[in-house]
Amino acid sequence: MSSAEITMADRPAEGRITDEAIAEARKMIGMQLRPEGPYLQDATPDTLRNWCNGIGDMNPLYRDAEHGRLSRHGSQLAHPMFPMAYGWIGRTRWGLPGVHGFYAGNDWELFRHIRPGDRVNAIERVVGVEEKQSKFSGRLVLQYVEASYFNQRGELVARGLGWCTRHERKAAREAGKYKDVKPYEYTPEEFERLDEAILGEEKNIRGNMVRYFEDVHVGEELPSIVRGPLSLMDTMGFLVGCGRGHTHGIVLKNAVKHPGHFFRNPEAGGGIEYTGIGHHRDSVAKEVGVPGTYDYGPQRSAWMCSLVTNWMGDAAFLKRVRSEMRRFNTMGDSTWCKGKVARKYIKDGYALVDLEIWGENQRGELTTPGMATVVLPSRDINNKVFLDGAGLDLDLPLIR
């Protein structure tokens, strides 16, 4: 390998969104993508607990082997978003070279529990490319991928739609949408409220107390959970929970293969860094118009999922969960995850509850709208008990 092959700029590439680049991206619709990692494939008590550590989930069903053994499932289960430890569906790793990408949302339908001893695999394919306008950067592109996750028996575990937004770095900087956003200064009373909510979360985990369909009422609020104030410990902990970490020659090989996604950062003495280092370096975040370092979208999606699993209890099944990243969650921000019962109904003999869920920051701004569908046990003996692989299909939509 010659030195010319590894010459890189000392700042992220300034790629352009052009008609030609969009056309090339659209040619990829229907193509299968190479696995991003894969990162964590094997479900073990350790990997399942470590994932929970990375998202701050304290539910014993997902982290305590003994609790799982004594539960109705007979074993510890994976948190429903554990498949994201294999690879973050919707990542900006195809098309539009040098154009910055932000994780924007995902929509999951779940079919089976993952248990210790399972091995996860995935097939991911491109399903859509859309062009839109935004106040953040003007012209932008939305990219959609669909991933199907299977266990070692070839059984479908989950199916997810993920999407990202692509922005020209220069246009986003110049638009300056977030230029007036300043770091938030909490009062002692606000810190006390945060600490109280975080330390009190476990008492609201439903656990082995069955939540019956008949006892749920439309408009009922879910106990809120909070994640924050966001710190470097949180973002780095999420990477550890996902089993992610590339160093030295592995980084260099990736940079040679995908030079538009890497650069030699003067802040690292010329060390090679991925353009996503804006999650950890203010300077790189500001290159694309963000006021400072920010969270990972899959991390926030997992928080929203934990809001639901805390509420529903061990005997329920999370069938669908969707979340959208509508506003940046930067260092020092807190995300209050909230929800309420929007609808309850019977479909194909199953007792279902639709939930409206959302995240808002400490300023009261909506950051993360979403929804979820839960299958609950019913006292009506005419209703079915949901088992792994049962034939309830919610027809997860693709592009909305």
Could you characterize the architecture of this molecule?
By secondary structure, this protein is α+β, with helices and mostly antiparallel strands. The chain has one domain (3-375): Thiol Ester Dehydrase, Chain A (Roll), CATH 3.10.129.10. It contains ten helices and twelve strands. Helix 2 (45-55) runs antiparallel to helix 7.
Write a compact overview of the structure shown:
The chain is an alpha+beta fold. It is built from ten helices and twelve strands.
Layout of helices and strands:
Elements: H1 19-26, E1 32-33, H2 45-55, H3 60-63, H4 65-70, E2 100-110, E3 121-134, E4 138-150, E5 156-167, H5 169-175, H6 188-199, E6 225-227, H7 232-241, H8 248-257, E7 262-265, E8 271-274, H9 282-287, H10 297-312, E9 317-324, E10 335-347, E11 350-360, E12 366-375
Antiparallel strand pairs: 1-3, 2-5, 2-9, 3-4, 4-5, 6-10, 7-8, 9-12, 10-11, 11-12
Helix pairs in contact: 2-7
Task: Please name the defining characteristics of this protein.
single chain; 400 residues; alpha+beta; Thiol Ester Dehydrase, Chain A; ten-stranded antiparallel β-sheet; two-stranded antiparallel ribbon; 10 helices; 22% helix; globular
Overall domain count: 1
By DSSP (H or I, 4+ residues per run), the number of helices equals 10
According to CATH, the homologous superfamily is Hotdog Thioesterase
Provide the CATH top-level class: Alpha Beta
Main beta-sheet strand count, sense and barrel state: 10 strands, antiparallel
Mean of all residue-level pLDDT scores = 92
Task: Tell me the series of helices and strands, N- to C-terminal.
Answer: HEHHHEEEEHHEHHEEHHEEEE
Unreliable stretches, pLDDT < 50, 5 or more residues? none
Quaternary structure = single chain
Count of extended strands: 12
CATH architecture: Roll
Name the strands of the widest sheet in spatial order.
1-3-4-5-2-9-12-11-10-6
Helix/strand-derived category reads alpha+beta
Q: How much of the polypeptide forms β-strand, as a percent range?
A: 25-35%
CATH topology: Thiol Ester Dehydrase, Chain A
End-to-end distance, in Å?
A: 45 Å
Radius of gyration: 21 Å
Shape: globular
Helical amount among residues, as a percent range?
10-25%
